[in-house]
Amino acid sequence: MHVIGLQNSKKTLLASPGNRLALGKNGEWKQVLAESSMEALPLPKLVEVLQQLQDQNKRHIAVVDNTSDDGVASFYPKFIQAGFSIATPNKKAFSGSLEHYSAILHTALQPETIQKGPLVYQESTVGAGLPIISTLDDLVITGDRIKKIEGVLSGTMSYIFNEFSPPQGSTRKFSEIVTVAREKGYTEPNPGDDLSGSDVARKLTILSRLIPDLANALPEGFKSVDTQSLTPAGLLDEKDADTYVKRLPEFDAEFDEMRAKAQANNSVLRYVGLIDVEKKVIRAGLQSYPVDHAFATSLGGSDNIISFSTERYSPRPLLVQGAGAGAEVTAMGVVADLTRIAQRRF
Amino acid sequence: MHVIGLQNSKKTLLASPGNRLALGKNGEWKQVLAESSMEALPLPKLVEVLQQLQDQNKRHIAVVDNTSDDGVASFYPKFIQAGFSIATPNKKAFSGSLEHYSAILHTALQPETIQKGPLVYQESTVGAGLPIISTLDDLVITGDRIKKIEGVLSGTMSYIFNEFSPPQGSTRKFSEIVTVAREKGYTEPNPGDDLSGSDVARKLTILSRLIPDLANALPEGFKSVDTQSLTPAGLLDEKDADTYVKRLPEFDAEFDEMRAKAQANNSVLRYVGLIDVEKKVIRAGLQSYPVDHAFATSLGGSDNIISFSTERYSPRPLLVQGAGAGAEVTAMGVVADLTRIAQRRF
After folding, report:
1. What range(s) does the Homoserine dehydrogenase catalytic domain occupy (chains A, B) (predicted)?
2. Mind giving me the DSSP string for B130-187?
3. Is A254 exposed, middle or buried (0-12, 13-18, 19+ CB in 10 A)?
4. Any chain A CB within 8 A of the CB of B343?
């Protein structure tokens, strides 16, 4: 594998035909890119230039989209049409409208595209480097029938509820835990973006589209997922992050009440994603689990956990657990995807 | 993918050039094979015939070894030399002597072999269809450093100790649980074959050879693993399975004592495999775990669980759990391997 191009929102670096980019030692690439004399290319121009390199080098090209940008995601059909593979942790393309998702599939399935052999891998969109997408793919491709997928899919939500509602119970305030999580950098700059549940809804969209029975279930993508926002009604219009956090204690009583109810039932609260294939339910929201359930006992830190119940894996499910966010484990998923592309196309 | 040949210890079926085998509907293949007029071919002859088919069909051939036979395993270098890929749940080739294992690698790495493109996949040798080998491969290939692998790797041992030493404690006798397990078909015909720990030692051998720092650690393969046999000293010479089981109650007191010691420490007993890379320890044996440890709380039935502690996945490990034995989940791993071969070579 050679790196032949790098682009961020400001600058571009391109290798000359037949060569790889000179990026210096570990980590120096950032500066090399910043000092490039070439302004960032508009995406149509970038595709054109990469196609020329492909024609000259006679080697397969893979695009790694490490942004979380809608604009780049909307360009996937063009990349694929040009014959480029894609490896990405960007959830936008696969969790948006069914129309855009179908356009990607449709492009990939055109005979003249298939001939160029582009592949699309997205392991890190759910659970970062954890083997989640690949496991679901293997279950489906080998003829298993998925019955239910259930999991703690957001590292931020995991941390918040592991602290707020541990198996042994707690009296800590919800607002205090969110504030600490924000200070530690576990949340988005505005914690409301995590508490909305849309990150979990996006991951559920990606997973459900890999299940044949649900491939067309969510016309508007993550917006079609039944999602419980944890932002209190009184804060829904609060756009300023600092004010949002400052006012959160006003609503602690609501969260205390939910926790007390769970504790009275010897249960904990977890914010989970649920896909029930038979009932065609796809939902993101708070759920209570008995204190001896894996989601209560086994989780810690900002771990993700996901449980696949299938015709083969039942009554006991297949479980995958571990860190589901962070630069290193996300990069692992992307590089493993790139390796799979290299094994199949170079 | 086409099936072009089937062979068991008695009979062989071969397709004519350009055709696939006619195997009837689901499940009928067994009878079709049994009624074949062709006696099972000696392996050298089989390779020769398959090579002719490969030359005529101009298509890549994969051998699926669904035996647990040493003789077939010892033939892998010949398959690979002929350019055939291998997908197998058979542990014998990869857990035997380092010499044989190295011969397989050496053959695969000869320039004239590489050109033919054979691939070797063995997901189902550890944990059946659970993503264990592929996860370890991805960790290593993306540059992570494995620190420790620890797991309940035998479905039989899992069942026995989940029953004998649950988190809430138990007074059931070891011999009684083994007897029930045998009646349910969870053990080998002679439970002594499970209690010897050699199945776990074989799996540890396979895993450790995928870790660069330990690639050459076990010259005699599974025999070099530090393995604790659970067969009581007084039964080591008992070869008759029925007598073995009948005499097991004589030794219940030994097991009661170990359990009492664990329970006094608020712990459970589990038969685990352990690979400590830094200390270069590779061991199969009984270990006690606190009652709130995942190996105590989360396991049930005959589940396998495996925990990868790495530079990236620490202090909290990456965990994979689920059914680790049985025809369906084993077949899943083999078919997923075949799919990967098909994606890369057909």
Report:
1. 131-338
2. SSSHHHHHHHHHTT--EEEEEEE--HHHHHHHHHHS-TT-----HHHHHHHHHHTT-S
3. middle
4. yes
Residue B108 neighbours by CB distance under 10 Å: 18
Select from A294, A336, A344 the Cβ nearest to the Cβ of B138.
A336
Identify the bridge partners of residue B14 per DSSP, sorted by sequence position.
Answer: B5
Point out the residue among A131, A144, A329 whose CB comes nearest to the CB of B131. A131
Query: Read out DSSP for B92-123?
Result: HHHHS-HHHHHHHHHHHTSHHHHTT---EE-G
Q: Please check whether residue A302 is in contact with residue A153, taking contact to mean a CB–CB distance below 8 angstroms.
A: no
Measured in angstroms, the CA of A134 and the nearest CA of chain B are apart by 9
Is the Cβ pair B313, A329 closer than 8 Å? yes
Of the candidates A261, A242, A241, A244, the one whose C-alpha atom is nearest the C-alpha of residue A253 is A261
Per-residue pLDDT of chain B (346 residues; tens, 9 = 90+): 899 999 999 999 999 998 889 888 888 999 999 999 999 999 999 999 999 999 999 999 999 999 999 999 999 999 999 999 999 999 999 999 999 999 999 999 999 999 999 999 999 999 999 999 999 999 999 999 999 999 999 999 999 999 999 999 999 999 999 999 999 888 888 999 999 999 999 999 999 999 999 999 999 999 999 999 999 999 998 889 999 999 999 999 999 999 999 999 999 999 999 999 999 999 999 999 999 899 998 888 889 999 999 999 999 999 999 999 999 999 999 999 999 999 998 6
Alpha carbon distance B196, B192 (integer Å): 6
CB B303 within 8 A of CB B321: yes
From edge to edge, which strands make up the β-sheet containing B62-64?
Answer: B62-64, B85-87, B120-121
The amino acid present at A75, given as its one-letter code, is F
Q: Is the ipTM of this complex over 0.90?
A: yes
How many CA atoms within 13 Å lie on the side-chain side of B329?
28
